[in-house]
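All the exercises in this workshop are built on plain-text protein records. An example says more than a description, so a record of this kind follows:
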Amino acid sequence: RDGYMHGTGSYTWVDGPTYRGHFYNNSITGTGTYIWPGSGTYTGEVSNGRRHGFGRLSFELGAGCYEGYWARGLRDGYGKLSFNEEGTCYYEGAWKRDCKTGQGKMMYANGNTYEGNFVKDVKKGRGTMVWNSG
């Protein structure tokens, strides 16, 4: 529209990434999918070209995924980060500015679990650690 990207379409950068989804007055805004070849895929809400709102970021080669809320391109709000494809190792809970901050649960691949408070990715404050004895 008037020389601007507006509506639904796709854009591919010279260095490889592609975006497919909504544009508003030449800005990537709405819902869509980013694809980074050899790295991963994001599908969800975007604002001014950044992940913003609810979305899912999947990493290639079975390296897991994050599904939850974003603010200005950073994980922020409630979300779940799976560290492996099997889902046996994950963090589920509160995020702030891309860090585990607030109440959450960490499940380790060996079966151990921690449920409690996190501050900037570190277990801090009240929490309960349960060790897998098997």
Notes: The two ends are 63 Å apart (CA to CA). The CA atoms of residues 88 and 109 lie 5 Å apart.
